[in-house]
Amino acid sequence: MLSQALRHRSAGKPHNERLEFLGDAILGMLVSDALYHKYPNATEGDLTRARSLLVRESTLADLAREQNLGDKLEIGPGEMKSGGKRRDSILADATEAVIAAIYLEQGIEAARALVADWMGDRLQLKPSEVSGKDSKTRLQEWLQAKQHPLPDYHLVQATGNAHERVFEVACILEQLGVKALGSGA
Question: Is 96 assigned a catalytic role?
Fold first, then answer.
């Protein structure tokens, strides 16, 4: 079952798409359960936002990289040439498929242990992450509460490959005499 979980559709049948489907549901349930118990005072909205951060494609791709799943993936020649073993979508799908394979072979408690191990400190969310508000949103809400105008944003530069861009942006608050630079993906 694990070999099927690590076999992409491009490599032929049997592949991991059905396992991915099941793994997505199992992962959502296990992360929901962990958050529900870890944060007894969190609202439904907070829990939903926290879960979405943990089960999104980029997080699952990071988990796959940490577990070196890309090296273990079986993919077809076309996907191999296009860098499929590094593509977030393929890695995230493999993560879900592996979770399903563990569930089917060893049961829900083994899947729960795997998810807890792989998620590790990610389940220790910061209040800003649980609230779902990023830095830009918090800044704009603060400015509006103080009756200040919203900032102007200007792209300074974009670097990196098309699928791994890093943007440097200037945030300018003319009325307050503030100019700040930030960068991120």
Answer: yes
pTM of the shown model? 0.69
Taking only the tens place, the pLDDT of each residue in 150-162 is 888 888 888 888 7
Assess contact for 85 and 70: CB atoms under 8 A: yes
pLDDT reading at 146 higher than 90: no
Q: DSSP states of 127-182 as a string? A: HHHHHT--HHHHHHHHHHHTTPPPPEEEEEEEES-GGG-EEEEEEEEGGGTEEEEE
pLDDT tens for 62-113 read 999 999 988 998 888 887 778 777 888 989 999 999 999 999 999 999 999 9
| 46 has catalytic annotation | no
Q: Active-site residue among 46, 88, 93, 96? A: 96
57/91 Cα distance (integer angstroms) = 8
Cα–Cα distance between 27 and 100 in angstroms, integer? 8
Query: Is the pLDDT at 38 greater than 60, yes or no?
Result: yes
Catalytic residue among 24, 74, 79, 93: 24
Q: Calculate the dihedral angle through the C-alpha atoms of 132, 138, 140, 141, rounding to the nearest 10 degrees.
A: 90
Task: Read off the tokens for 113.
Answer: 């242990």
Residue 46 pLDDT > 90: no
Is residue 158 within 8 A of residue 166, CB to CB? The reply is yes
Let me know how long the chain is: 185
